[in-house]
Design brief:
With 185 residues, this protein is mostly helical. The protein has 8 helices and no strands. It folds into 2 domains: 85 residues, RNA polymerase sigma factor, region 2, helix turn helix motif (Rna Polymerase Sigma Factor, Chain: A), CATH 1.10.1740.10; 80 residues, Winged helix-like DNA-binding domain superfamily/Winged helix DNA-binding domain (Arc Repressor Mutant, subunit A), CATH 1.10.10.10.
Length: 185
């Protein structure tokens, strides 16, 4: 029994940040992300005895997380809060040098880095849910397209296409953001 708790604790340590980050990115709200992440781990704890050890663990875990996000989007509570309209099917439509006196870096690189992170994060958040899911699973979680397809209930080619569309849409969003900031400067 103590061994099971220890294993479950290690499992939680290994997956919590990844699952929470994925869920937060998909639902866009920290409180909802915490609730959904808790649901994911409760489900995983109950379902772990049924896990087929001949299969990869990551796709199984992220499939459960994706299904919990879908459950949230379908729930009356979520619809009541006006957060409806999200679907993992979104995105299926056809294409549309000088050396410093002090060797330490000053605050500018850090500020620029923070600004870039914020801009990228906002651009990812602006993606339709289906494209965002494909992007996060591939870019952040480094899952294979076959696994992403299984998680999103699509085939590998569709997962690749969604990822490609996500990159194109990110490029468009970031270019528009750059144009807007140049006009405002």
């Amino acid at each position: 029994m103590a061994r099971d708790r220890e294993a479950l604790g290690r499992f939680y340590e290994l997956y919590f940040e990844r699952i929470h980050g994925y869920v937060r990115r998909m639902v866009g709200d920290e409180t909802l992300a915490e609730d959904v992440t808790q649901d994911v781990f409760l489900h995983l704890q109950r379902a772990i005895p049924t896990f087929d050890t001949t299969r990869e663990l990551d796709p199984w875990v992220f499939t459960i997380a994706t299904n919990k996000v879908r459950d949230l989007w379908r729930s009356k509570r979520h619809q009541h809060e006006g957060l409806r309209g999200q679907s993992l099917d979104d995105g299926d439509a056809d294409d549309r040098t000088r050396e410093a006196v002090d060797a330490r870096p000053g605050p500018l690189p850090e500020l620029e880095s923070e600004e870039l992170r914020a801009t990228l994060s906002a651009a990812v958040d602006a993606l339709p849910a289906g494209l965002r899911a494909a992007f996060v699973l591939r870019w952040h979680e480094e899952l294979e397209f076959t696994d992403i397809g299984r998680i999103l209930e699509r085939n590998e080619a569709a997962a690749r296409k969604r990822y490609s569309r996500a990159l194109a849409e990110l490029r468009r969003i970031l270019e528009e953001s750059a144009r807007t900031s140049r006009r405002g400067a």
